[in-house]
Amino acid sequence: MAKPQPSWALGVPGPDTPASPRTMRTLRKIQSHQVLSTSSALIAQTQASRQDGSNEADPGSAATPGAATRARAHRRARSNSDAASREAAAATPPTTQRRPARKTGSGIGVKRSLLENFLRDGPQSSNPNEGLGELKYLVLSSRVDADGDGMSPYRIYLWLVLLDIPPMPTDDYLAFIHRGRSPAYAKIRNDTFRTLATDPLFKRRVTEASLIRLLNAVAWKLHDSRPKPRSRPTSSRRREMELLVNAPPRIAEESPFGGELAKVTNTTTSDSAMYVQGMNVLCAPFLYAARSEVEAFALFHYFVTRECPGYIRGAMDGVHKGLRLVDRCLEIVEPKLAAYLFSKGMHAELYAFPSVLTLCACTPPLPEVLHLWDFLFAYGPHLNILCIVAQLIRMRDLIFESPSPNKILRSFPPLDAKEIIALTVLLVRKIPGDLYAEMISHAK
């Protein structure tokens, strides 16, 4: 049976080697190419340990954990709000009937999964890299416990841990709300009412007002992060700069103002956008899974600025790179299907743009999207490229039988996260290392 390799064997810097969080995040993404290739043995090993450890679950532990940047042991004191009821219960003689255990949730009377126990109690190892690797294996080998609507009491904390997002003060979010309408407010209002309009689960839980508030707050924060233009030069200085602009290139290069003029031009030019169409759909699962708008704001802002900033630039160059990667990966893992689609003029840019931009959040049902995102946040959002390829492979027979594949590819069939993840893990083995490196960096 294959065993997970230690962090030093996979190229992760040791305790004496300083590394930035972004460097460590990139190294962990590269490791996923090797780790996922041995996933079958890891899943079997984890399932065996799950059977042994399920009988040791403590049914009387505290409630849901708080968000943490790293999984660690954390116990919360019991509230005294029910002290009177507990004293009354102690004075009441016991009855012969027993209250049946709840079937949903993770409170008293319900056995918790290994994944939930891990988030509550933390890893056994003191090495954070080993603990994070163990958490990823649990996400891959066992689904997050959720009800029929896809709601889980600990999923949002799992995402915060996997993405290493620290707690955010509520006042910081409220400060953006109180600033009113951002410059992108009109664009936001033009899209929010269409967000997952046909999904009753989303409409029942998330209001359009909360979606507008969150996107408007993110637009303000992106606006504040833009480089500020320099102060306006004086009249004499302005005349000198005008002479430099109209002067021949040789004179401008020799002038001491040439470099400063270039700096002014560069700082006032920015191609980053505060809002692009599609950000509303990408934001929707965060709001649906979170317990508060502040949690959703912290997750969504981190995601669009650190994981996929290329997706929200004005030109959306990251999305277009991802579309080309879909064609290249499909050509490697399923050459016949790729050749058939190319012969019909069907490239990924014609049918996969929403799936790349929103990490498949545009394809229902929403509970399956959340399970797919558990996997993507654990091993890297770049694997969404292979998840799209996996969906195409599952549609292969329908595509071959249809003389016009564009009718089939207008809307993908409902997501089946378990099958797509299993097929994606198999596809990882067929992707060359250089192409996999392009997948990691395409959204930056």
UniProtKB/TrEMBL annotation:
GO terms for cellular component: mitotic spindle pole body. Residues 61-70, 80-98 have a biased composition (Low complexity). One of its GO terms (molecular function) is GTPase activator activity. Pfam families: RabGAP-TBC (PF00566). Signal peptide: none annotated. Residues 149-380 form the Rab-GAP TBC domain. Residues 1-107 are annotated as: Disordered. Residues 32-54 have a biased composition (Polar residues). This is Rab-GAP TBC domain-containing protein. The lineage of its organism: Eukaryota, Fungi, Dikarya, Ascomycota, Pezizomycotina.
